Amino acid sequence: MKVLFVYPNKVMATRIPLGIAYMASYLKRDGHDVRVFDTTFIKCGNVESDDKLRASSLQVRNPDFAKYGLVEKRTDVFTEFDREIDAFKPDMLAVSIVDPNYTFGLELLRRAKSRHNILTVAGGATPTLAPDEVINEGCVDIICRGEGEEALCELCAALEKGSDIKNIKNLWVKDNGKIHKNDIRPLVNVDEVLWPDWDIFDERHLLRPLGGKMYRMGIFFTTRGCLFPCKYCANLEFSRMYKDKGKFYRIKKPELSIREISSYKEKYGLDFSFFMDDIFPIHVPEVLDEFCRLYKKEIGLPFSINIHPALVKEESFARIVDAGCRNICVGLESGSPGIRNKVLGRTYDNDLIVRIFELARKHKIRSSSFNLIGLPHETRNDIFQTIELNRRARPTTTTLAFFHPYRGTELRDLCIKERLFSPEKEKEYESVTRVQSLLKLPQISGKTLNGIFRTFQLYFKLPKAFYFLIRIAENDSLPGRIAYNMLKGIFYILTYKDLGWDFSKGQDAKEEAVK
C-alpha cells in the first residue's frame, strides 16, 4: 500500500514528530510505500512561527534562521497538497492530530476527501481523547486511539487482502452509517519498539536553536508514559484509558537507547541530544547509572532533559551532568501553591523548585522553567507569585504560554462547566498558547493577561526598581510602548551581554556570547 502521512504544522516547529516516524518504520518493515506531506516549511496563513512568537515576547533571542535555510516557502499549501497526492497517488492518508493543529489537520483532510476521495485515518492525542468528536467529522473514515504502530500495520494488511477491518483493536471504523468502536490493545513493550524513521522528513527538522546557537539536534525518548496525574495534561486520561492494559510508565533498557542514539548520531551528524521524555528516569538509580556510563562512553554529546522537581537527588543530578547533561527543563507552571496544587494537580512546594535551579547553577549548566498564565481561578496576584518564584529560583531562561484547555483533560471539563470558554469558538484560533488566552476569566481580563504576557520577562529579569515602568509597559498605549521599548533595551543589555553557552564544557563561555 501507499500511505501518505500528513503533518499539519503551521508554526515551523523544527522537530521530527516521532509518532509519525515510528509509524513509518513499522509500515516500511511490512513493505508499504510511505511518504509524508509536511507543512512545516510552507507558509500557512498569517500564523507566526513558534520561535518568532517566543522571541517577540523576549523568551529567547534567536540566531539567524535564514542563514540555516529555516524559511517558509510562500505558496498555497492546499495546492502543494494536491500536487503531492497527484504525484504519489496514495491509497490512504494518515494525519497526526493534537489540539493546536486540529482545525488545520481537518482542513487538509476535507481537501483530500473533496478532490481525491481517499481513505483517511486520524491518530494522535486528539482522536484518542475526543474520539466521538473526531470520528463524526465527515472527512474522517477511521480513527486510531492510543499507541497505533500495530493497529495501523494490521489495517494496511487487511486492506491489501480485502479483509474485514471493522474489528481491529485501537480503531474506530465507519461502515455504512455505523461506527464500529473497538477496544484498545495492551501497551507495547518499549524494548521491542522499532527505531523511528527520520528519512522521510526534511533534514532541516534537525536544526534547533538553544541558548542563542543552532544545533543539529536529535530528539529521543527513553521512556513512554508518565508517573504524575496533572489535571491539565493528556497523560492522566491516557493512564486511565490503559488501566489493566500494562504498566503505563515504561523505561527502555539503557543499552538499547544508547545503540539507537549512537546510530543516529553517526548517520545524521548530530551534535546535541534532546530527550523529550515527560519524566526522564533520573529517579531510577540502576537505570540512570547504566545510561550515564554508556552515554558518556559511546555518545559524548551534550544533552537536555525534562525533570520533575520531586524526583531529583543531588547525587543523581551530578551523575547526569558528568554524563553530558547541559540543560534541564522544569515545569514550574505556577508559583501559587494553591493554583499549582488544586488547579493543576502538581503537588510539590516552592522550595523544591528553587533547589532544582540551585543545583543547575552549582553544576554550571543551563536551565529553563516552563510557566503558564491564564489558568482557571488565577488572579493577578497568583501570576506575580509565579514571577517571584522564578526570581527566587533564577533559571537561565523562562518559557511562557497561555493555558489551553486541551481535549480529554480534567481542566477542560472544569472550564466548560464554569463557562470559562466556548468550545465552538476554539477552531477560530491557531497557535493560541503564544498569542492569547482562550478563557474569559471573571477575575482577570484578557487585556491584563496580554499585558503581563508581554512584560513577563521584564518582571523576571529586571530589578524591582523598574516595576513601576514595567506596569506602564503592560498597556498597549503610546506611553506603554515607549516604556516597553526602553525597558527592552535594558533587558537585552542585562540578559545577553555575557550569555553564551559552550555546551561541550557545561559552563558560561563569554567568548561565545549571543550575537
Structural features:
single chain, alpha/beta, 515 residues, 2 domains, disordered C terminus, 18 helices, Rossmann fold, 7-stranded mixed sheet, 18 strands, 39% helix
Question: What's a quick, concise take on this entry?
Answer:
This protein has 515 residues and is of the alpha/beta class.
Walk me through the topology.
Blueprint: E1 2-7, H1 18-29, E2 33-38, H2 50-56, H3 77-88, E3 92-96, H4 102-115, E4 119-123, H5 125-129, H6 131-135, E5 142-144, H7 149-161, E6 171-175, E7 178-181, E8 207-210, E9 213-220, E10 223-224, H8 234-241, E11 250-251, H9 254-268, E12 272-275, H10 285-299, E13 303-307, H11 314-323, E14 325-333, H12 337-343, H13 350-362, E15 366-373, H14 380-393, E16 397-402, H15 410-417, H16 446-461, H17 467-473, H18 478-496, E17 501-502, E18 507-508
Parallel strand pairs: 1-2, 1-3, 3-4, 4-5, 9-12, 12-13, 13-14, 14-15, 15-16
Antiparallel strand pairs: 5-6, 6-7, 8-9, 10-11, 17-18
Structural class: alpha/beta
Query: How much helical structure, as a percent, in the residues?
Result: 25-40%
CATH fold-level topology of the largest domain: pyruvate-formate lyase- activating enzyme
Radius of gyration: 23 Å
Count of domains: 2
CATH superfamily of the largest domain: tm_1862 like domain
Secondary structure tally: strands: 18
Mean of residue pLDDT?
92
Shape: globular
Through-space gap between termini: 49 Å
